[in-house]
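Sanity check record (used in CI):
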Amino acid sequence: MTVLKTSLRNFLAHKGRMALSAVAVLLSVAFVCGTLVFTDTMNTTFDKLFAATSADVTVLPKDAKAEENGQNGLPETLPAATLDRVRSAEGVAAAEGAVFSMNVTVVDSRNKNVGASGGAPTIAGNWTRTDLKSMEITSGHAPEGATEVMVDADTADKHGLKLGDTLRTIAQTGDVTARIAGIATFKTTNPGAAIVYFDTATAQRALLGSTEAFSQLNITAADGVSDERLKENVSRTLGADFKIQTSEENADENRQDIAEFMNVIKYAMLGFAGIAFLVGIFLIVNTFSMLVAQRTREIGLMRAIGSSRRQVNRSVLTEALLLGVVGSVLGVAAGVGIAVGLMKLMSAAGMNLSTDDLTVKATTPVVGLALGIVVTVLAAYLPARRAGKISPMAALRDAGTPADGKAGLVRALVGLLLTGAGAAALLAAAAADKAGDGASLLGLGVVLTLVGFVAVGPLLAGVVVRVISALLLRAFGPVGRLAERNALRNPRRTGATGAALMIGLALVACLSVVGSSMVASATGELDKSVGADFIVQGNQPIVPQAEKAMQDTPGLAHVTRYKVLDATLTSPDGKTDDTGVTAADPTYAEDLRRPTTQGSLADAYAPDSMSVGSKYAEEHGVRVGDTLTVAFKGGESARLKVAAVTDDDTAIDQGARYLSMDTMLKYVPAEKIPPNVIMFAKAEDGRQGEAYTALKKSLDPYPQYQVLDQTDFKQELRDQVGQLLNMVYGLLALAIIVAVLGVVNTLALSVVERTREIGLMRAIGLSRRQLRRMIRMESVVIALFGALLGLGLGMGWGITAQRLLALEGLNTLDIPWPTILGVFVGSAFVGLFAALIPAFRAGRMNVLNAIATD
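Expected output for ABC transporter permease:
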């Protein structure tokens, strides 16, 4: 009880000093809990949607997979005649055929895409009784005939659509233009999908290409018949040629498909939260180390009157426990707020999430509290242990811990050994022949060098701070020298404070090098390899009508089609490979200048010929002239001669196996031929500008596709990598904020620790302005120390990662010096910002009271 009272008294006495540590715990716990609440809410939203849209029993094509089309770009189908067979099964109250496709684009009368954004699908289908479970018609009526369509209310509101407006639906089988006859509203939360409904016959013709097919059958059970019993009855009637699912099984399958995506988001965000926790550990260690140092005499008195080491240790750990509890409880509450904020952000991006579905599982606060408290107590363990070791007489003399010097030497030696081992691992990773082996070594090197730099931080602080001070602070005279000496006064503290900032900036530097190198490699490869003037691509396969518009464009010397087919290859050694093949026009050999290790790529487009990549050829002992067996999905098996082996030392089409369109047509039925995933074009000599304008005009009715020349394509690549990096930087911002709090806390506690000293300095003539400048300079030096270590370490990681990417064809190393220098300069401003409050408080000190402080 005495220990608890002492700890509580100390905690409340230093509540201002604990505040920033509590904020660090709060932010870290909030990010973890916010991630869990956000992902759980998304899962709840989809669970409700899947439950509401599933029939009692669903009959699908045997090989159908959720959200996937067949090889030909159309949904997998089952014969319409199956519907009559199902209706005859025992226990069937009603059955209806459903049609749907997600390979569609919907545009309004202004040719603007009104489909979903933010990754959600655009779905076209027929209006059925099953849809009434999840939607209700709130305006107009259900579509009747080929000239009417119904749209969901969210899409109508977002794009200003109303009854009577015209929509054009672009599908693989053609375009359908219809006026809006009705608007339907979701009864559950719509995660962001855009939905258009046709009558059944129109949906069959427009989406499936036949009125004799359905995407699936929805069956309603008669009263008293369970879903499982109905499934058994339908299975007996239809046999094993179909996939038959109960409502629960259908919802579970859809849930599993979305779970993979959700897990990626969840664990990525938790990873960044873990980084913030790691940075927070340094803050907490520093806080308690300084508090212990400031209470050395108090601890000595406690020991002198009978307190044991264990009691002193327990007192400090109890304070940490109180800090962890306060920070974690507030963090759990803040996490719910973060989740709501993320939901609003996702809604702005096109994925609607309602706070009505906000899900806070019982495990979420438990995880948040446990994580925050355990991390805080563990971080305070070393300072607590150090406090317990102080002898009463040494403490009363303010002599500190006798073993500090020896412990510092051991720490420095361990740090140097770990850093050396990590550097060796990074060098081994850079020299690896296989990306998988190199990735393991890279991970090991990152961990070892990070831990090593943290351990050797105090030693590095003595060197790096002197160098930075010589370059930046000496010009400020005595004030600059005082700031330098303050930063060097406790190298362990400076090292720990800088290390917190180092972690976040190391990741920023690493990712910047990797991202910049990826862009430089890809653009260099484009300059070297791509001969096409124009590239046409989109987020969907290219529909035949857009292909025809492209081929009819004036000013083009040729247009190249490019299709990916599902196929299984059997090599001469008897091994199989099911990664597929690529069918292209012979002009693709001009559009992509692929070097070969054997033969010529142009020869691969001869009848019954193909090419393979050099890695495949090496693994299976394949040479030009050998024959491979290619079993085309939905088609025949063919024996094709290897006419070329392409060099896989490239980032474009690495490992692709090419054959001609004529060879594909010989072995694959017309109805199984896939759409083009991308197309290329070359302008007639001297007509590039004219052809570019004409091609854009030809494809203007199809806004889902982009027409890019090589400059556009490079910019698109830069933008995509830039968006990804910005998202990662945004997530790393939390760790950097916690690191800034660490600098603020260190300075604030340092000011308290030096109260008497500051009073004496003021008494002998140091002005308030000079005092504030001294503290700001000290903060800048610490921030630049952390930045220098972080940027150097991160560039080492990034360079090693680029060498591994070189094994995948990304051969160009590009260090983004403007970004690196910008981050370094920005760190100085971070230091200035962190010093504002401590410097202000120091400047307001009463000189006489400060001198009188014991």
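The two ends are 29 Å apart (CA to CA). If this sentence no longer matches the regenerated tokens, the check is flagged for review.
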